[in-house]
Design brief:
This protein is α/β, with parallel strands linked by helices. The protein folds into two domains: 11-54 and 191-262, HAD superfamily/HAD-like (Rossmann fold, 3-Layer(aba) Sandwich), CATH 3.40.50.1000; 83-188, HAD superfamily/HAD-like (Rossmann fold, 3-Layer(aba) Sandwich). The protein has a six-stranded parallel sheet. Strands 7-6-8-9-12 form a five-stranded parallel sheet, sandwiched between helices. Strands 2-3 form a two-stranded antiparallel sheet. It has helices at 35-44, 60-69, 82-93, 105-113, 136-147, 171-182, 194-204, 218-228; strands at 16-19, 26-27, 30-31, 48-53, 79-81, 98-102, 117-118, 125-128, 151-154, 160-163, 166-169, 187-188, 211-215, 231-235, 254-256. 48% of the residues are buried. A hairpin with a 2-residue loop joins strand 2 (26-27) and strand 3 (30-31).
């Protein structure tokens, strides 16, 4: 047991559950053990829940369809992504602005729906998310636009993420060459940004005291909960391992092997 940690969280007493996806529910296209039982547990107990992911590639509809293919049926309204958080941030900062985007459909559609147009000539923003079509040519274009005055925004600061075959590079790594070449520091809208956490709490309609965040990363999920004063559960099915914990000044309230362990945790009589 680590100093300052409390293993007595009563999950049954919690009203709102904010749950990461990559490394918690699945790795790539592989469903993690206990994920299906956990979602069923949430639904049977009429819990309010939101899947909060820093991945910007997929829209809520695509995430819904992905889980359906894995045997879990969750309505689109239960998903909130860093792409949506980024679109809401830009729309609040500069309504009707334009952006040059390195990213996939989930990010582009979120920006379009927020009234932000695509522009590769003189955009107000350069926005970067995860993308398999990431290339030197697109980096070069982004550098030129930022140097010309566009502001640099990333969907999330994650350097890596869990994949089916191990760790894969994430937005923080992909945006780094642009930051270095332009001597600019990107603004990240995704976790652990408190803006994304506040939006999640609003969508749940719960107070932070009756909510909990479940994630596999100390540097995004757990710190986001700590800084937002929301109880935290670290699951060891993703990026962070027990051996990593000594590197962080903060601690999760509880550590579990996987999200399915919540179903078997002691409940209020």
């Amino acid at each position: 047991m680590l100093p300052g940690m409390d293993y007595s969280i009563d999950f049954d007493a919690k009203a709102g559950f904010i749950c990461d996806m990559d490394g918690v529910v699945y790795h790539g296209n592989r469903l993690l053990p206990g994920a299906q039982a956990f979602v069923q547990w949430l639904q049977e107990r009429d819990k309010r829940y939101l899947f909060l992911t820093n991945s910007s590639e997929r829209s809520p509809r695509e995430l819904h369809q992905k889980l359906v293919r894995m045997g879990i049926d969750v309505d689109e309204s239960h998903f909130y992504t860093s792409a949506l958080a980024t679109a809401e941030f830009l729309a609040a900062q500069a309504e009707g602005c334009s952006a040059y985007v390195i990213g996939e459909a989930g990010l582009i559609n979120a920006l379009y729906n927020a009234g932000i147009s695509m522009n590769d000539v003189n955009p107000e923003y350069v926005v970067v998310g995860e993308s398999p079509s990431y290339s030197y040519a697109r980096i070069e274009k982004a550098v030129q636009l930022v140097r010309a005055g566009a502001r640099l925004v990333g969907t999330n600061p994650d350097l890596t993420g869990p994949g089916e075959n191990g760790v894969v590079p994430a937005c923080g790594s992909l945006i780094a060459p642009i930051e270095l070449a332009t001597e600019s520091k990107a603004y990240f809208a995704g976790k652990p940004n408190p803006l994304m956490m506040r939006q999640a709490i609003k969508r749940l309609g719960c107070r932070r005291e009756e909510s909990i965040i479940i994630g596999d990363r100390m540097d995004t999920d757990i710190v986001a909960g700590v800084e937002s004063e929301i109880d935290t559960v670290l699951v060891l099915s993703g990026v962070t391992t027990r051996d990593d914990l000594h590197r962080f000044a903060y601690r999760p309230r509880m550590i579990l092997e996987g999200v399915g362990d919540i179903c078997s945790a002691p409940q209020t009589p």
